[in-house]
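#onboarding

Welcome to the new folks! Below is a worked example of what a typical request in this channel looks like: someone posts a single protein sequence, and someone else replies with the predicted structure as tokens. Don't worry about understanding the tokens yet, we'll cover that in week two.

Example request:
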Amino acid sequence: MAQFPWLTAIFLLPLVAAAFIPIIPDRDGKTLRWYALGVGLLDFALMVITFGQHYNFADSSFQLIEQYPWVPQLGLNWSLAVDGLSAPLILLTGLVNVLAIAAAWNVSRKPRLFYSLILVLLSAQIGVFAAQDLLLFFLMWEVELVPVYLLISIWGGPKRQYAATKFILYTALASIFILVSGLSLAFWGDRVTFDMAELGAKNFPIALELLAYAGFLIAFGVKLPIFPVHTWLPDAHGEASAPVSMILAGVLLKMGGYALIRLNVEVLPNAHIYFAPALVILGVVNILYGALTAFAQDNLKRRLACSSISHMGFVLIGIASFTEVGLNGAVLQMLSHGLIAAMLFFLAGVTYERTHTLSMEKMGGLANVMPKTFALFTAGSMASLALPGMSGFIGELTVFIGISSSDAYSDSFKLVVVLLSAVGLIATPVYLLSMLRRIFYGDNRQTETEFDITTWFDAKPREIIITACLLLPIVGIGFYPKLATQTYDVKTTEVASVVRNALPVFAQQRQQNRLFSGGLFAPHVTSPQTLLGVADLGKGA
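Example response:
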């Protein structure tokens, strides 16, 4: 059984199942939704069994390796493997997608196409996290865009065509940088290879590393998203249906953070030293911009989308911290936010189904008629604002400890970063509690529709179960973080050590190459043994 292609089976199951949907006899969509849910549950169960019995979380190397020639003329191999970085994200993908299928229980418009796209999207997400061939990674990254575009443009809100077009333009154009940067790295040297492990072993010139890093950063920054290439996200969330928003916030944004660690940090550690201070600054901008912009949003889902932008800033800071604790916190923040965001966007969909509006100005007083939804929404908001005892708190706290304890940055730089990030952290409970007040407290203000509040009904058992499946791991990780960290901490330790070991190399290169030296993007290392202020804002700027 150890030789069985487990990852290929996990990838192919939803893809093959989607091919049978057109021939399944069904009239009202009931059979299709049970079929899609069964496929999702089976695939998630296969993930749990595979990682529970055939994967060693104490081993930082790639495991469950599967490699077969696919298109030899292009050098494309079917190469799948997982390590501590990808395994927990695949499990998150399986959980969120199963719950998204359950959340789409009332889809009546073109159910065959809807569930087919959801299953294809599930396969593509798994492929992104498991691919070890750069061309295969790029292929999966592109395949994932099509289902999301169609899911928004067909089942979205009034401005769905605009939001879907903006999404595909941003992400598809940014993907060009993945291809160009990847090909540049693959063809460098005596041997052409697209294997990520072999690319990491190559000795690239620093100029090529910097250009490739910049290309990857643009592409993955759009997906994360990073300011200023973030503007597609509020529009996409504002128009997408709740199940699609769950996948978009719960999984797709994490692809950007995963790819930054996998390619930018692991494969290009020398260039990462140059760009790390910029990532920290962009992370701070994300935190502040997302939090402040959330105040201006009347649309419930757009406010939650801006909140996602803010929370992804902590991921950037953790990735660029040069510490094991910071990188550990970045991965924990991705997992935590995936659960919390999926929960909040699902509850936003539950509220929309009752009120037929996303405008908080038209809501109010819903706590009286929807007490269960109010309680669940409050719990999700508490997790998002980093209440102690929930996963959001431990994720953000770990990032703060990582950046503040880093000896690769000057004290003045770290002080500014922590203080500005704290401002965003303080603003988060303000806009989230304001959101709860406007939706659930006061008198009902819905005057533009004839919807009778006496006919509103609270969350159904199905909706409570979906929310509980997300809330339980949120609370579990909050009280016992090792539930999550034990799956990846040996990997983050290894990645952090790779970057730390690259610092002496940088110090030697800096003496020969003055590119970016003395400025904001150049860590100042006086010797291979001593790490001094990487990004002192007042020194040499």
